[in-house]
UniProtKB/TrEMBL annotation:
CDD domains registered for this protein in UniProt: bac_FRK (cd01167)
Protein name as catalogued: Carbohydrate kinase
SUPFAM superfamilies: Ribokinase-like (SSF53613)
Family classification: Belongs to the carbohydrate kinase PfkB family.
Keyword Protein biosynthesis: no
Enzyme Commission number: 2.7.1.-
Alphabetized GO MF terms: ATP binding; kinase activity
Organism the protein comes from: Streptomyces sp. R28
Length: 323
């Protein structure tokens, strides 16, 4: 099982241009999207978070269940659901403003243990910024790493939520000894400062940087660099694209029995190229439709045999996007 730990929220997505364009609510949050994407690809997945008892919270859990994600570890609270208001530029890129004060996911507490079948835990986005929950997720990350569990980190920087950028950058560096796989965008890397080699020296076995339409590059602890081009697609928007990459990497590594620091290096050029191309294809499909709508295994074409053969047998009845 892959456990995804982090926030679930509601994206309010504009249906036109201008500040007064109508807003359509959509299920979202970086970790939430990652969990849904993993479920759609067929990976046994559990979500570890805290959601509201309000209607949005109920609907978020329904979306996870629909994707086949185990929600038994989700905590609940009477506080409202976090809202993220998106704006979309002419190229389809999304920016966000957040309504987070007093919301349910901020009060997450670290569980005493992970599910017995846990092979990896994924962390990231707002959940590692907003206290007091951020410290609880950090505790979970450090404990998982200490137990030898594969850990993945996608910082997915939302600069507007970070009141002390230098303090966050220092905290990010303190997480790296507990991280197996670091995935981040070019924009995240620029904001955080440092280089893949510096980050690798601090702990991770591999660093994957996404470059939008230009593709993905992986750097591994042995000094190797593996890169693939992006998939050409008519972009509707980029909401959920990075989260889809995160899920595809974890799913592909699990399919190759490579959820360990040693296995990441041992994949070699062929293994990394297949994995990165798989992630690029999955992200392109997400970008081709509005909102965070990651693909199902049946939509991955020639990657099905390599990465999705078993999941397809498990998810035969779930081959179409929701909505």
């Amino acid at each position: 099982m892959i456990v995804v730990a982090g926030e679930a929220l509601i994206d309010l997505v504009p249906q036109g241009t201008g500040a007064l364009a109508g807003l359509k609510p959509a299920l979202g949050g970086g970790p939430y999207n990652t969990a849904v994407a993993l479920g759609r690809l067929g990976s046994p997945t559990a979500f570890c978070s805290r959601t509201s008892y309000d209607a949005f919270g109920d609907t978020l859990l329904d979306g996870l269940r629909e994707a086949g994600v185990d929600v038994s570890a989700v905590q609940r609270g009477v506080e409202p659901t976090t809202l993220a208001v998106a704006t979309i530029d002419a190229k389809g890129s999304a920016a966000y403003s957040f309504y987070v004060e007093g919301t349910a996911d901020r009060l997450f507490t670290a569980p005493s243990e992970l599910p017995a079948a846990t092979r990896a835990v994924s962390f990231g986005t707002c959940s590692l910024v907003l206290e007091p929950g951020a410290s609880a997720y950090e505790e979970l990350m450090r404990n998982a790493a200490a137990q030898g569990v594969f850990t993945a980190l996608d910082p997915n920087i939302r600069a507007g939520l970070i009141p002390d950028p230098d303090g966050y950058r220092a905290r990010f560096k303190s997480w790296l000894p507990s991280v197996s796989l670091l995935k981040l965008s070019e924009e995240d890397a620029l904001w955080l400062g440092g280089t893949p080699r510096e980050w690798l020296a601090a702990g991770p076995a591999a660093v994957v940087i996404t470059q939008g339409g230009d593709g993905l590059t992986a750097f591994t602890r042995d000094g190797a660099v593996h890169a693939v081009a992006g998939e050409e697609v008519d972009v509707v928007d980029t909401i959920g694209a990075g989260d889809t990459v995160n899920a595809a990497l974890l799913h592909g590594l699990a399919a190759q029995d490579a959820l360990s620091a040693e296995a990441l290096v041992g994949l070699g050029a062929d293994g990394w190229t297949r994995l990165l191309r798989f992630a690029a294809r999955a992200a392109a499909i997400t970008c081709s439709r509005a909102g965070a709508e990651p693909p199902y295994a049946s939509e991955l074409g020639d990657f099905q045999e390599a990465f999705c053969a078993v999941p397809l047998l498990r998810n035969q009845g779930s081959s179409q996007p929701r909505g």
